[in-house]
Design goal:
The complex is a heterodimer. Chain A is built from three helices and six strands; from the N terminus they run E-E-E-H-E-H-E-H-E. Chain A is an alpha/beta fold. Chain B has one domain: 2-Layer Sandwich (Heat Shock Protein 90), CATH 3.30.565.10. Chain B has a five-stranded antiparallel β-sheet with strand order 1-2-3-5-4.
Chain lengths: ~130, ~180
């Protein structure tokens, strides 16, 4: 199936989903008008990856910010990864947020409360 | 419109410390341009990253509300195409407080639902808003247009103030919905 690499734009994040390492990275901002359209290939890739995943899957979320339409799509992506967890792979989430960005920190905590995957909250100077 | 009123309009905007004002059809391109302009303006005038992000976030949600909402009316009523697709957006900064104001036509039948929703949101405190957001995020359904029903809740959270709004009757079918979001 290959890796999924998408270059970021002013409205969409950079995507680097690596099949060989099991590291899935979302980086930048996510504010498209219709997020469903943008996130569809991500879900499809994860579904395909789930058929023969690496023993460890790392989901690196490095979002500067996202709109509410994206927040729902991100949750769906988390739910998909949750369903893979324990089925041939251990899924871990790294949630990055910028210093003093309580909003993004809270957003990560909210996902953590909904999704039963191990979350690591990582504060960085700049995303 | 008389020539004198151009100056009056200018003065009114100056008085309100307007950073940007737009009236017209909200398209994805317009949305991108406004966000780009506002991002660079905010980088100039606002030192706090936190505030910058909050204002930007509110702006994104407000613009996307205008975009999605007006699209809806266009589908339902082709005759009023230009009339209903046109919206107003104003951003101002006054002594450290930002205000994002929007105005758009809304079908009367949708006014009541929105009013109830806004009143519900305004009745909640910070922590209750977070709980509501989480439950809508987890249990709410995504609409065909990709809207999640979270926009106003998010705007209220980022604003930290009560949402000021009003529905002005226009004719039998439409109201004009005015929203003022204050960000400290």
């Amino acid at each position: 199936m290959g890796n999924l690499n998408m270059e970021g734009s002013p409205k969409t994040p950079t995507i680097n989903f690596d099949e060989s390492t099991g590291v899935l990275e979302v980086k930048g901002r996510s504010i498209p008008e219709n997020s469903v359209e943008f996130y569809k290939p991500l879900n499809e890739w994860v579904e395909a990856y789930g058929k023969s995943p690496k023993s460890e899957t790392i989901f690196d979320v490095k979002l500067e910010y996202f709109n509410t339409s994206s927040s729902k799509c991100i949750l769906d992506l988390f739910k998909l990864l949750e369903s893979l967890n324990g089925n041939g792979t251990e899924v871990k989430v790294n949630w990055y947020f910028e210093e003093d960005d309580e909003d993004m920190e809270e957003a990560g905590e909210d996902y953590q409360a909904i999704i039963s995957l191990p979350f690591k909250m990582i504060e960085v100077e700049e995303i | 419109m008389s020539l004198k009123s151009i100056y009056e309009l200018y003065q009114a905007m100056e008085r309100d410390h307007t950073m940007l004002s737009f009236k017209g059809v909200v398209t994805p391109d317009l949305l991108s341009s406004v966000l780009q302009i506002m991002e660079s303006k905010l980088n100039h005038v606002e030192k706090s990253n936190k505030t910058k992000k909050k204002v930007y976030n509110v702006l994104v949600e407000c613009l996307q509300n205008l975009y999605h909402h007006n699209e809806n009316i266009q589908e339902e009523d082709g005759i009023n195409f230009l009339f209903s697709k046109s919206a107003l957006l104003m951003i101002s900064k006054n002594e450290g407080n930002y205000e994002v104001k929007t105005g758009n036509y809304i079908l009367k039948e949708n006014s009541e639902d929105l009013k109830v929703k806004l009143d519900d949101i305004n009745a909640l405190n910070k922590e209750e808003l977070r709980v509501l957001y989480k439950s809508v995020l987890n249990e709410g359904e995504m609409s065909e247009k990709g809207t999640a029903g979270l926009g106003m809740i998010d705007i209220a959270r980022k604003s930290g103030n009560k949402l000021e709004y009003s529905f002005l009757p226009v004719d039998k079918k439409y109201d004009f919905f005015c929203l003022n979001v204050k960000i400290n």
